[in-house]
Amino acid sequence: MTDFAPDSILVVLDVTPSGVLSSSSAGLLGAAAEVGTPVALVVAESARQEALAADAAALGAAHVLLATADASQLTVPTVDAVATAAALVEPDAVLFPNSIEGRDAAGRFAARSRRAIAVDAIGIARDERGILAHHSVYGGAYTSTSAPTFGAAVITVRQGAVDARATAQPLATTVLEVAPSGTRAATIDSFQEAEATSSRPELRGAAKVVAGGRGLGSQEQFALVEQLADALGAAVGASRAAVDAGYVPYSHQVGQTGVSVSPQLYVALGISGAIQHRAGMQTAKTIVAINKDADAPIFEIADFGVVGDVFTIVPQVIETLAAEEK
Amino acid sequence: MKIVVLVKEVPDTYGDRVLDLETGLADRAASDRVLDEINERAIEVALSYADVHEGTEVVVLSMAPEESVATIRKALAIGAGSAVQVTDSALIGADLTVTAEVLAAALERIGFDLVIGGNLSTDGSGGVLPAMIAERLGVPQLTSLAHVEIGDGVVAGTRASDGGTADVRADLPAVISVTEALPDARFANLKGIMAAKKKPFETLSLTDLGVTIDVAASPQIILTEVGKKPPRGAGVKIVDEGDGGARLAAFLLENKLA
Lengths: 326, 258
Ligand SMILES: Cc1cc2nc3c(=O)[nH]c(=O)nc-3n(C[C@H](O)[C@H](O)[C@H](O)COP(=O)(O)OP(=O)(O)OC[C@H]3O[C@@H](n4cnc5c(N)ncnc54)[C@H](O)[C@@H]3O)c2cc1C
Ligand SMILES: Nc1ncnc2c1ncn2[C@@H]1O[C@H](COP(=O)(O)O)[C@@H](O)[C@H]1O
Hints:
The complex is a heterodimer of chains A (about 325) and B (about 260).
Chain A: E1 8-12, H1 25-35, E2 37-43, H2 46-58, E3 63-67, H3 76-89, E4 93-97, H4 100-113, E5 117-127, E6 130-137, E7 142-148, E8 153-157, E9 173-175, E10 187-193, E11 208-212, H5 223-232, E12 235-238, H6 240-244, E13 265-269, H7 275-278, E14 286-291, E15 304-307, H8 310-325
Parallel strand pairs in A: 1-2, 1-4, 2-3, 3-9, 4-8, 5-8, 11-12, 11-13, 13-14, 14-15
Antiparallel strand pairs in A: 5-6, 6-7
Helix pairs in contact in A: 3-4, 5-8
Chain B: E1 2-6, E2 9-11, E3 33-35, H1 37-52, E4 57-63, H2 69-78, E5 82-86, H3 96-110, E6 114-118, H4 129-137, E7 141-150, E8 154-160, E9 164-171, E10 174-178, H5 190-196, E11 201-204, H6 206-209, E12 221-228, E13 236-239, H7 244-254
Helix pairs in contact in B: 2-5, 3-4
The complex binds flavin-adenine dinucleotide (FAD) and adenosine monophosphate.
């Protein structure tokens, strides 16, 4: 039997429906490598396991545990595999991505194994007593650090929040025999994969974000946001009002109840800057805003604000940048 | 059909929210307290089913400090049939593990076919409680539903996750959580507010639930540090006089952001 390092961190990776490691994996393994020896758990169909294990090792997993699961059952098969892996590895902490899948599995696993659970960490640390989680709360207005009273905690890590990357490791794998718990699970009847996104960077973890609000006026006119995003090599974000109006899918929503981002540059176009929107972006390094209302609250936090019409200003920005490139 | 909706009082996100830097607890006096918007949507899911299915019982359940009575009553004013509040001084600062244990115990006592929660609370942003409660109760969970269909002994819906959208289903009893894609709740009108005063409102302590919180037996999460970030100030604001775009582009270039 394999011996696992005493400072092992069990990292449960999300596998996308098309069978590749989720983009959250690099940050999770990077976070784990800073505080211990990352041991990855990958739950996937057998045919994909070899490739996924190689990818996880390349991202820094010192050991990759593999398990198969009934893909038509929601969450429970993954939790059964995590329970088996945790019993084998006896890790100092169990990390999950703070994705919908990751949160469900983390919650169930914590409840089942009677471990403490900390959620939405933006970083992991270790002190003499064990593993700590750093959080950004109330929309980035506060920071906090949490720790379990004892034992190895379950921690979900905000996607895109960790910049650290681990060095590639030689491939070492173990295939787990997982005994199903028999816990009742929901059934997945069908799955429609999100439209293959363009060449644009993903919103979570993007270095630059261009976001549009109700001020864009229509789905067609929201294209202006995409044009500026492409000119800057940025991801596309939106306010809840823009999502509600159907300009863009919910996955682009930035804010309290959407994605939290901390990019180098955040450009807010036709967004008033409601407190719930600011909660998801006010930790950006530089904030730029264009709004025709000089009193819009977004200007209170903008490093560079332009009072004016997005439909005349944005095309001029794009033109000027294009001219500069020549 | 008995539907229990999990509701939570949160500091109003429209105002400033304050954390006590000593205890890490929310400073209750510093903000207005409201029913979390996502929970209003969860109530609406239950009520719109009850509208067309006679004999549906809608109960709201909250683990909350004593002072939250008025907020929980709002759920009754919107249309829920009865309320259960679990309140106990031992629950101040409860972490997710304790909250899940207490809510699961209360649900077992109340009895349920379907439990509906919000996908994420606006203060905790944990988004894990529905799954934790489902595990404790040994029932399936369907989280982050953007569309819900309650049928005969079954609940189904569409679940939007990062990779795409899934059609999911579970036999009852089950726990679900809903997203803000679902409609907001109906208004609590004057008639509803008056009626709410007469609706059953049960208050339970940990003793009533037979739950003891043993800090030595079950690990909890504690805050070891809390800090406040300095508020962000405003920078330059210009009014567009025909060259606003060019000046913005210059700012981006100067700061190596383009
Ligand atoms: C519990 C809760 C959670 C929430 N979560 C979120 C969240 O996650 N994310 C979020 O964004 N919101 C959230 N909200 C909603 C939030 O309160 C605001 O309603 C929303 O952010 C407003 O979006 P907006 O700025 O696009 O629209 P508006 O507030 O309508 O602002 C539009 C702006 O566009 C400007 N404008 C119009 N035309 C032009 C033009 N041609 N050129 C330039 N400017 C123009 C206007 O001056 C205005 O300032 C939440 C609310 C609640 C209660
Ligand atoms: N103290 C509580 N009492 C009742 N329900 C709660 C409580 N805390 C959380 N919930 C429910 O769980 C959902 C998700 O909360 P959270 O895990 O904190 O994001 C909320 O929207 C509520 O439906």
